[in-house]
User: Which sequence fits this backbone?
C-alpha cells in the first residue's frame, strides 16, 4: 500500500512539472487591494467652478467696419455629469462622459449723453457637452488626463435704448455649437469617491445676434472642481504584477523650484467720461502664458502641510478693437503682459503622494495699452504701461511623479485695483488663468511624518 502511495505522489510531481508553460502563465485577475483603486466602471458627479467668455464681435455697413476682439463676460458655473471609464492597463484609462451645466457669465456695454441712453447685456446660460477622455495613472490613486469633444451653449443678448420720444429694446437667444478640450487631475479619496480639477477651453461657431447685424464668435475658458461617486462593477484589470507607482510615502517638507505653462482670459471694467457723456463696458482678452515659480512647504502632520510660494509669469493675454471708415482708421489694444505673486498655501494629502491645496496672496500685474489712428494721411500713436496691485486665489492639485519631481495643475483668479490710466478713463483688470507645472523638491527632513503617513 505504501508503494502505491509513493507511486501516486511521484506521478503528481511529474505531472506538475511537465505541464505546458502556457498553463502556468494564464492572466490572473489581481484584487484591487494589490494594485490600488479600480477605475473601471460608471460614475456620476457634480462640479462648481468659474471662468468667462471672450467674444469676437464684428459689424459692417456701407463704408464702416468694426472688429471688437475683446468683448468679455465672467462669472461662476455649476454642472452635473456622468460617465464610464475603462482601465485598459495598470496605468492607462479611456472613458466617455456627458455633462449639463449652467454658467452665469455676464457682461455689458452702456453709454449715455444728455437725453439719451443705451445698454447691451450679454450672458451665458445652459450648456452641455459629450466628451472622450484618455488618462495616465501617476500612481494607483491619481489620474492625469486630457478630455475633449462636442460642446453646446446658449447665449442671451438683450439691449435697451432710450431717446427723446421713445424707448426700444430687444432680446435674443443664440444656440452655439462647437468643440472643447483641456487637461485634468483626478484623485481617489475613498474606494467610491474621487475629486477632480479640470480646465476646458471651448470654441464656438460664428452667428448673427438676432437682426442687429452684429456677428459674434465666442470662446470660453472654465475651471471645474468636481466630486464623483463611482459605482465600479465592470471588472478588474488582469495583470501579473502589482502596481505601486509613486503611492509610497513622499516627503513634502522642503523647498522647490519649477516652471509652468498655461493660458487664460483677462477682463477689465472700463469707465470713461467727458463732460456730461459717459460710457462703461466689460472688455475681454485671452492668450497663453509661461513662467517659473519656487517655494517651501512644511508637512506638519501625515495629511497636512502649509507653505509659501512665489511666481513670475510672462503672458500674452490680449484684446482690442479696430475701426475702419472712409478716410481713416483707428485701433486700441490692451495686453496683460507680466504678473508676479507672493502667496501662502495650505494643503491636504488625499494619499501620501497627492496633495490638494488652496493658495492665495498678493499679486501685481502690468498692462500695456496701445492706441493709434490714421486720418487724412496723418498718423498718431500712443503706448503706456501701468502696474496694478491686487490679490490672487485658487485651488490646485499636485502629485509626486518620481524621485523629487512633482507635477501640478493650478487655477487662479486675480483681481486688481481700479486706476485712472488716462484723464477721464478708469480701468480695473482681473484674470482667470490655468497653469500646468513641473517642479523639483529639495527635501529638508520630515522623515518622521513620512513614516507616520506610511502607517
Assistant:
Amino acid at each position: 500500500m505504501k508503494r502505491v502511495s509513493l507511486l501516486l505522489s511521484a506521478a503528481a510531481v511529474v505531472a506538475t512539472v511537465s505541464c505546458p508553460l502556457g498553463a502556468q502563465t494564464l492572466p490572473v485577475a489581481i484584487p484591487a487591494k494589490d494594485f490600488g483603486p479600480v477605475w473601471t466602471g460608471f460614475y456620476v458627479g457634480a462640479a462648481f467652478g468659474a471662468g468667462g467668455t471672450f467674444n469676437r464681435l464684428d459689424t459692417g455697413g456701407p463704408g464702416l467696419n468694426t472688429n471688437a476682439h475683446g468683448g468679455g463676460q465672467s462669472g461662476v458655473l455649476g454642472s452635473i455629469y456622468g460617465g464610464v471609464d475603462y482601465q485598459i492597463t495598470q496605468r492607462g484609462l479611456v472613458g466617455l462622459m456627458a455633462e449639463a451645466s449652467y454658467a452665469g457669465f455676464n457682461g455689458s456695454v452702456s453709454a449715455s449723453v444728455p437725453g439719451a441712453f443705451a445698454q447691451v447685456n450679454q450672458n451665458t446660460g445652459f450648456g452641455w457637452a459629450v466628451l472622450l477622455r484618455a488618462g495616465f495613472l501617476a500612481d494607483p490613486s491619481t489620474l492625469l488626463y486630457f478630455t475633449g469633444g462636442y460642446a453646446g451653449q446658449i447665449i442671451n443678448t438683450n439691449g435697451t435704448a432710450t431717446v427723446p420720444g421713445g424707448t426700444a429694446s430687444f432680446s435674443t437667444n443664440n444656440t452655439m455649437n462647437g468643440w472643447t478640450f483641456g487637461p485634468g487631475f483626478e484623485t481617489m479619496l475613498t474606494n467610491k469617491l474621487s475629486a477632480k480639477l479640470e480646465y476646458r477651453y471651448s470654441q464656438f461657431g460664428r452667428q448673427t445676434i438676432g437682426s442687429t447685424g452684429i456677428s459674434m464668435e465666442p470662446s470660453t475658458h472654465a475651471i471645474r472642481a468636481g466630486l464623483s461617486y463611482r459605482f465600479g462593477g465592470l471588472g478588474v484589470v488582469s495583470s501579473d504584477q502589482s502596481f505601486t507607482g509613486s503611492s509610497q510615502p513622499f516627503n513634502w517638507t522642503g523647498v522647490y523650484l519649477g516652471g509652468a505653462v498655461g493660458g487664460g482670459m483677462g477682463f477689465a471694467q472700463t469707465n470713461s467720461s467727458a463732460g456730461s457723456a459717459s460710457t462703461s463696458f466689460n472688455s475681454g482678452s485671452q492668450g497663453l502664458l509661461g513662467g517659473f515659480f519656487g517655494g517651501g512647504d512644511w508637512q506638519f502632520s501625515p495629511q497636512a502641510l502649509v507653505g509659501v510660494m512665489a511666481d513670475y509669469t510672462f503672458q500674452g493675454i490680449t484684446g482690442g478693437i479696430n475701426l475702419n471708415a472712409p478716410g481713416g482708421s483707428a485701433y486700441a489694444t490692451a495686453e496683460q503682459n507680466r504678473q508676479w505673486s507672493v502667496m501662502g498655501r495650505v494643503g491636504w494629502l488625499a494619499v501620501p503622494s497627492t496633495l490638494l491645496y488652496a493658495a492665495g496672496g498678493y499679486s501685481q500685474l502690468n498692462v500695456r495699452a496701445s492706441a493709434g489712428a490714421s486720418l487724412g494721411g496723418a498718423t498718431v500713436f500712443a503706448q503706456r504701461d501701468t502696474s496694478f496691485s491686487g490679490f490672487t486665489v485658487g485651488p490646485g492639485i499636485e502629485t509626486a511623479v518620481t524621485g523629487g519631481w512633482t507635477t501640478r495643475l493650478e487655477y487662479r483668479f486675480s483681481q486688481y485695483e481700479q486706476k485712472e490710466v488716462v484723464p477721464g478713463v478708469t480701468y480695473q483688470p482681473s484674470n482667470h488663468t490655468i497653469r500646468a507645472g513641473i517642479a523639483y523638491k529639495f527635501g529638508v527632513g520630515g522623515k518622521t511624518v513620512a513614516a507616520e503617513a506610511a502607517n
The mean pLDDT is 82. The helical segments are 2-17, 21-24, 32-35, 447-454.
